[in-house]
Amino acid sequence: xxxxxxxxxxxxxxxxxxxxxxxxxxxxxxQVDGYPVxxxxxxxxxxxxxxxxxxxxxxxxxxxxxxxxxxxxNHQASLRGLxxxxxxxxxxxxxxxxxxxxxxxxxxxxxxxxxxxPTTAAVRREVRPHRFSAAMLLHEDYDALGIYLYxxxxxxxxxxxxxxxxEALIPRDPRPKIDGRSARQGILRPxxxxxxFEEIGHPEAVWLHQIGCRRGxxxxxxxxxxxxxxxxxxxxxxxxxxxxxxxxxx
Length: 250
Ligand SMILES: [Zn+2]
Description:
two-stranded antiparallel ribbon, Aminopeptidase, 8 helices, binds zinc ion
């Protein structure tokens, strides 16, 4: 059943069924490389600071897209009442081909500095009317030895609590350096160097931080582990950030 995790039309059919059952509408926001890109907004987003969740910006990270859908399916009855902006898959061309990049070889996660890519332009447009108190960007990593996360936070961070929610499924990556950066028990809090991002392009997390999203987490599962476990770890991490964001709002 999970072998079809790269079947984009099937992913979207399941999202559409879920949206219908939840009284929500899946919105096509762009057409990129021959595929429609979608978002889902809840009515609660117009009155409260929201939670931004996105998956599949790298097409070879399918536990992100499956995890976001599985979490939403588990919360079908309560979705409408949560202030959510969800992007089920930001790189459909890549997902369908198990490739990180888009059809032109772009890393879409380095193109948030302006409306320079049809996907990031559409995401920026959807975000503009809203405020966000938290964001979680869902990823996977082939080199990872366990779960880990990047955290960009203006307020006391909550990455530790997110890893605690998922580590019973997959332990933390124990390495002191991950992707060339210092890590402590699976948490990376790199200093944001604007100069560096001017060179390599702005990731989604950096852009969200710059526009005032107070807490941003990039969550990573290890691609070499069993898909079902990775999906469940993604579900647990999403569940925890939803809980934490609700506590912030109350
Ligand atoms: Zn990624």
